[in-house]
Fold this sequence. Notes:
This protein is α/β, with parallel strands linked by helices. It has a domain at 5-182 and 228-256 and 304-316: NAD(P)-binding Rossmann-like Domain (Rossmann fold). The protein contains ten helices and 13 strands. It has helices at residues 14-25, 63-73, 88-93, 95-116, 154-172, 198-208, 227-239, 264-276, 306-312, 320-331; strands spanning 5-9, 29-34, 53-57, 78-81, 119-123, 177-182, 185-186, 212-215, 221-223, 225-226, 252-256, 261-263, 288-291. The strands form four sheets. It has a seven-stranded parallel β-sheet with strand order 3-2-1-4-5-6-11, with helices on both faces. Helix 6 (198-208) packs across helix 8 (264-276). The two termini are 38 Å apart. The relative contact order is 0.13.
Amino acid sequence: xxxxxxxxxxxxxxxxxxxxxxxxxxxxxxxxxxxxxxxxxxxxxxxxxxxxxxxxxxxxxxxxxxxxxxxxxxxxxxxxxxxxxxxxxxxxxxxxxxxxxxxxxxxxxxxxxxxxxxxxxxxxxxxxxxxxxxxxxxxxxxxxxxxxxxxxxxxxxxxxxxxxxxxxxxxxxxxxxxxxxxxxxxxxxxxxxxxxxxxxxxxxxxxxxxxxxxxxxxxxxxxxxxxxxxxxxxxxxxxxxxxxxxxxxxxxxxxxxxxxxxxxxxxxxxxxxxxxxxxxxxxxxxxxxxxxxxxxxxxxxxxxxxxxxxxxxxxxxxxxxxxxxxxxxxxx
Length: 332
């Protein structure tokens, strides 16, 4: 494939920054566009000064600023739309902002892609399935949401559901749209503060010698996916013209996730085991507290990745213990 001009919204974030790095490695020209609400320019420090890399701070809802980004690039071939308000605490504390940014950001970037006839890849989420009554989660399963008066967790999941609707509408109007749903990506740049994700939060608690909290006893199950496996899925989704057997990718949605399912309690135990085996670590492990979890927290989340396997022969190649060890080594 020839060199493409690519915008990655949310490009200074956890997944976005790694995606930018690998796109540059493949010879493409990349502009990372980020509001820096959750992203950090330090994630892109390895690309500073690269002739084919650009960074622009901006709100993904600001169409004039997005137009400036395209003008700066000199055109656009592909948009990876990863910008969103994520983090479980935000879903409850700032539901209006989650809905506003996630839906309107998608609408604005879709309009941009249509105006320039650019390929478009949406970073959706398994949260788009809501309560996910059918497991494993597979494209075509019912998307079920509970009474919003009970909790606001679905401010995020429902926004991703509507994002997918907007993308499918654009696909029917002729836009080359692909939808990727990453499952619990983790790696060294993952946010570990109170608004972050669980793997990084556990490691951060160990490093700062603070108690670890297990929500609802840690009985929920998840499928954690190493960052490079996730990025490989995004690369295939955006850069391949068609599936490996000539299938059209327009309007296709597929899951990118490990099928190694563990409880949150087991995750905590595996992380403790890795730290305990580190000869350079001489501090006590933190205490573990069992606390009430957030309303609406999914009891189980297991992906069916058969679409990605069929289209790209993609599958997760990093087992959880391998990834956790790599993450701990990087954080230490």
